[in-house]
Amino acid sequence: MSKVKIPSLSLSYKILFILGCYIFGILAMFIVSQEDLNTAKEKLEALELAYTLNSITLEVRRYEKNFFLYGTQEALQENGRQLALALQTIEIISKRVARFKVHPMLIKLKDLTITYQEGMETLAEKWTNSKDAVHGELANKLRFEGQEMTELSKELVRFEHNQIRIILDELVSRLIVWSMVAIAVGIFIPLIMSFRIFKPLRIIKEATEDIALGRFSKIEVLDTRDEMQQVMEAFNTMVGELERRQDQLVQSQKLSSIGTLTAGVAHQLNNPLNNISTSCQIAVDDFDGGDPALIKKMLKNIEHETYRARDVVQGLLEFSRVKEFELHPANLENVVSRSVKLVKSHVTSAISISVDIPENLFVPMDIQKIQEVLIIMIINASQAIVGEGRIAISASIDEKKDEAVIEITDSGSGIADEIKDRLFDPFYTTKEEGQGTGLGLSIAYGIIQKHHGEITVESVAGIGASFFIHLPLQAGQLTDLGEAS
């Protein structure tokens, strides 16, 4: 079954969508809350009218009592006026709560008020004929209806009061729910922003810092399906291109180094070839009737010088060979000694080179790359010395940092403070035009960074310079060295 491809949205659309949802939620919360507040307001007005209605019914009962006690027309008329006002108030309440379902209590109260009003009108007619009517059955009925009217108005007040309390409780509950939703969304949006934007940016930032240190590492591409994913993919493409260009620069510098070494190698080969030629000539001259022991000695000399020439050529071939970057534990003393042999003929006889490396110091490295670094450093050191001088190569172990430290010190002219910051910049050189490309130290710096190490420099102008190459030791190296000592 083919995988359904989720359509991708641009980052701007995603942000707008999230913000739109957030604004829509706030707007919905506002509308619902406003509706609840409007309902509460209407119910509050209904409650005020219910209180008024209750007061009116009490007035109705008061004038009813006065009429029954004193039989005055004023009390009867005021009772009728209060009844009309009560019915008017009931109508107003009915209109105010028209959008709600009218409570049966209000309908019952209205019907009871009308019945009571009709009863009072009937009683008024009989009153004109006989005052004894107030003591009759109709009067008792009116008293009962008036009492029931008062109780219903009180019940209406309690009902409206409870309605307001329920609405306010619902409003509070909704506000709590909406607040929780707003808080959750407020937490969710930064998390989304962090994953979709800030995390990729942080990964890219760390990767650019690695590139600045000479480590060309591709980053993990997050499946964000937006511009950030495209940026990360483009970044990896750029890293691949930078790595390819760096390899080209390294190879270019290597070819330059090979060109420099070739003259020295030719000089190194010249001595063995001269010795071979001389030994050959002696052996040929004494071949007929000569001393067999002498001939054998000459042949041994030829064999020895051949091995010398082979080692020189093999060292140059090993240095020039192109291969993938690989870390393997290697004896640092052997690597340094081999590098010194390759470059020694390029250094004038007025400059001495001393090597002091522990025999049992093994460091994870790409031998060819570290050789290239050492050759660059030794050649640079020799070029900084005018006339007689010395180059000292030593190594030690920094137990706190668990690393080997190679120190290359020369007695040259030193490095000015204003130059130190630019020393490892590509194409920066203090040599005269045509005497250097300015890539050597930059490439050496990149190679060491690729080993997860670093190069530092200390120098006093006019006295000399010391370069320190820091290389991580393999796991357990310190323990092994302790046992060996």
How would you sum up this structure in a few lines?
This protein is an alpha+beta fold and 485 residues long. The chain is 67% helix and 10% strand.
Measured by DSSP, the beta-strand proportion falls in 5-15%
Globular, elongated, flat, extended or rod-shaped: what is the shape?
rod-shaped
Strand order of the largest sheet: 2-4-5-7-6
CATH class of the largest domain: Mainly Alpha
Specify the biggest β-sheet: 5 strands, mixed
Mean pLDDT: 76
Walkthrough of the structure:
A five-stranded mixed sheet has the order 2-4-5-7-6, with helices on one face. It has helices at residues 11-70, 73-96, 104-129, 137-212, 227-285, 292-320, 332-344, 367-383, 417-420, 440-450, 477-484, and strands spanning 328-331, 351-356, 362-365, 389-398, 403-410, 454-460, 464-472. It has three domains: 11-198, Up-down Bundle (Four Helix Bundle (Hemerythrin (Met), subunit A)), CATH 1.20.120; 231-322, Orthogonal Bundle (Helix Hairpins), CATH 1.10.287; 324-485, Heat Shock Protein 90 (2-Layer Sandwich). By secondary structure, it is α+β, with helices and mostly antiparallel strands. Helix 1 packs antiparallel against helix 4 (137-212), helix 2 (73-96) runs antiparallel to helix 3 and helix 4 (137-212) runs parallel beside helix 5. It has eleven helices and seven strands. 67% of the residues lie in helices and 10% in strands.
